[in-house]
Amino acid sequence: MPLITSSGADVFETHGARFSSYVRPSRGSGQLCAWRVDVPAGLAGTPHRPSREEVICCIDGELTISLDGAEHSMRPGDVAYIPAGSEIRLDGGPAGGAAWTTSLAGLEATLSDGRQLRPPWTL
Hints:
Layout: E1 10-14, E2 17-23, E3 32-39, E4 48-50, E5 54-67, E6 70-74, E7 79-82, E8 88-104, E9 109-111, E10 116-117
Antiparallel strand pairs: 1-2, 2-3, 3-8, 4-9, 5-6, 5-7, 5-8, 9-10
């Protein structure tokens, strides 16, 4: 399917954020995954380590990304490259924010307590 509208996205919620999955292998994309994440105002994200590299682009509002302990403010158009195995956390700004994220299929996240999370939007 070459065009996926916002009404065709699969929506999942976890850790207080909303994920809208647009592109993933189960939809015929091959190895690419892409989703939108909406982060509410003031939400402190869940620290985790992704098993695959990611690219995160702020598309709305303001976000704070913590990458291996260093915090960076993100505004629309700002992009963060996340190496596999880095510890990241994405927090909502004063009015919240949204990001577009792209990774490869099979992405898993290891949470701070050691639990594994296999997001349904990367399958």
